[in-house]
Amino acid sequence: MEVLLAIIIGILYAAGIYMMLRRSLVKLIIGIILLGNGANLLIFLLGRITEGAPPIIPGESKVFLEAYADPVPQALILTAIVISFGLQSFAIILVKRAHKVVKTDDLDEMNATDEDS
Amino acid sequence: MLTAILLGFLFALFLVFTGKFFRGKMAILSALIPAGLFAYFASFIPKISSGEIISRTYQWVPAFGVDLSFKLDGLSLLFSLMITGIGFLVFAYTASYLRGHKYLDRFYGYLSLFMAAMLGLVLSDNLISMFVFWELTSISSFFLIGFNNTNPASRKSALTALGITGFGGFSLLAGALLLGSISGTYSISEMLSMKEAIAGSEYYILAVVFIFVAAFTKSAQFPFHFWLPGAMKAPTPVSTYLHSATMVKAGIYLLMRFTPVLGDQEFWNTTLIIVGGVTMVYSAVHALFRTDLKGVLAYSTISALGILVFLIGLGSKDAFLAASVFIIVHALYKATLFLVTGIIDHQTGTRDVTKLAGLRKIMMPVAIAGILAAISSAGIPPTVGFLGKELTYEASLHAEAFTVVIVVAIVLTKILLLWAGFVAGIKPFTGKLSEEYTNVKAPDFLMWGPAIILAVLGLIFGIFPMIIESALVKPVVSALGADASEYHLALWHGFNTVLLLSAITIAVGVLLYFLVKPSVKLENKIGKLEFISPKSILEKGTHYFNVFSAFWTNVFQNGYLRNYVTTIVLFLVVLVSYIMFGSSRVVIDHTQLSQVTAYELVVALILIAGVFYTVFTKSRLAAVAAMGVVGLAICLIFVFYSAPDLAMTQFSIDTLTVILFVLVLYRLPKYLTLSDYKMRIRDGVLSAALGTVICLLALQVLAEPTNSEVGDFYAKNAYIMAKGKNVVNVILVDFRGIDTFMEISVLAIAAIGVFGLLKLRLKSTDRSQ
């Protein structure tokens, strides 16, 4: 499964970068989201994957009695997912706004800072 | 001593608040500062001449070995006296020269800033603090050259000077750090005892080159000399003070200061002789082709500095003696000539030497000063200039190699300098007064007084050389590491080769003066060679550098996001794959891997299909939906591999994103394919390369052993310390609670931003039509 996950991560990265290289703003955002997903999975994989052993202390005991998944990468990824939502929602609204003002979502028409260009 | 150095800085600061007071008639009062300092330093003469060395150390940054340590020996005493003495005369002269100038107080501020920096430079015993003062002199010089800041030529000259001397300062810092790391100290006195260790170091040559570049830029040696004629755009008091008597001699000072540490090595001596020799001949010849009085003086100053470098390079006792006498000689006569030129310029409004003649009828005292300075510069007895020249010839005759070449070069230079001195000091005053200038007013005492004091001093020191001998000259020579106690300065040394050379110099020089008159024709001739001068080469260089920078910036900072991304990704791919494939092979250990079950395979296939559909679909809505599918598939992977919290978060966030997208996107224009086929192939290849690299990287990391120490800590303590059983949650809200709090703040800011963007109404002007 690890090899399969590595391939999936590769595909997500490739797709993310490919979309970021397009001229459409919407595609750019989709690309960033795909890239973010790839990065999350990468961290997850590199923290070593464990099947069926969530890092939750069972029942009455105070410590783990059996093997458990590493909680640190999970905490990191959880933070990353939430933060990336903040970024995505802001970017999506910004696209809408930009479209309203400059009537395009073509990045090449947005590469000047002057309003009149 | 610290007070003495800081006095100039304090006065400059004081002027900021009381400028108005000093702008008017009270300007002359500011001359009291250099006068007081001169008296203070003069009081050390008896102690220094008896061989004492006075040092004071104030701690500054002890952790780095940087102290404000000052050392007053013969060498620094001579320079301190020159700085404060000529400073006093220049301050007084300025009061009249710039009388009523709008920014007179500012000018005094810069001057006293410079004076303090220069004193700090020559008194510093710590290389780092010396560097700081060195830079301060460059900066104050920049302000003074560009004092007429409405004149573009002034500003340009100031910038050139700052560029060249700033480059030298940088080199000084490099040399200081290098010497510091070789010897383990920044104290110059301590380096003295490590002469052999430094000379034996493999970095000796490099350190010397750095020190040389610093000295040559500051003292305008070929090929860095061209900033000095440009610096003549400054008001004349500045030219007198900075660019003939003091600042340009900072490089000479540096070389002399380091002679006992770095000197007496073949590389040191040969380089100095060659550079000094080329400079003195090159710029003495150049002086012939100038018609601006200040231009003549600028080139003759460069030439004199060349002679000093050359003498330090000779490295014999005679040469050090000659150099220390010549510093005094040059400061006296060159400052006088500059002051005289300033008076002429101020009264007649021109410095064109072809137009000036017969001014003695109007300004007799100035004429006396000028003529005295001219004969001192020519080395005609009984002036002190004669002493300087005799000693210089003596030292050249005793040169170890190429004696003939050296003697010819020095005699030629002296002949040309005699011509330059006569043109500047005698020509404007002799001959017939042009009618244009018959109504010129005589200058007041404040202007001609300083000039005549300096000129007469040149005469007195010549007739009674014993005044300067034990007080100034010998302590300097002993500071340079030679012993000259046997020697006595005197005008008359009997009939010998030196006297013969002197006679030849004077005869040929005077003949040349009568034969060659400065003219515009000559100036035009040299102008034709301008294109191969170091100055124009440097200007062209900076021009092309600017062009190249603009080109470079346009290539990389072109405003196209995808180009930035391409550059970054390409660089990443090349670098990572170079490291990865250069070092090791990817090894996959099958025993460590978990099995792929059927439902995992299905989820993986859905995910991959979703990704491809997102990329290649022509519909925006379909792309967003497919992206949602990808997110949910990842959510399932989290479920399979023991991350229920991640799965829940991913699920809700993914859903929200898709909903938000759909809400917003139906208003957007048609989903266009904007790029052509070729471009898509190129991007596809690049993306695939990155994907492959990341994939291989992940596999390679998996082959390395992992460390779960941190995870174990949290797992062990989650319940015991934080009373929570879900370790991930405990980490987020307890162990790393502050981080989570910050994250919430970020989200809140994003939410405010979203709200603002949604609610903000467009003004009619913002809406593009």
UniProtKB/TrEMBL annotation, chain A:
The organism sits in which domain of life? Bacteria
Broad class of where this protein is predominantly found: membrane
Membrane topology summary:
Multi-pass membrane protein
Going by the UniProt record, its keywords in alphabetical order are:
Cell membrane, Membrane, Transmembrane, Transmembrane helix
- Report TM segments: 6-21, 28-49, 75-95
Which sequence ranges form a coiled-coil region, renumbered to this chain? none
Q: What is the annotated localization of this protein?
A: Cell membrane
Describe the family membership recorded for this protein in Swiss-Prot or TrEMBL.
Answer: Belongs to the CPA3 antiporters (TC 2.A.63) subunit C family.
| PANTHER family the UniProt entry points to | ANTIPORTER SUBUNIT MNHC2-RELATED
In its UniProt entry, what is this protein called?
Na+/H+ antiporter subunit C
Taxonomic lineage per UniProt?
Bacteria, Pseudomonadati, Bacteroidota, Flavobacteriia, Flavobacteriales
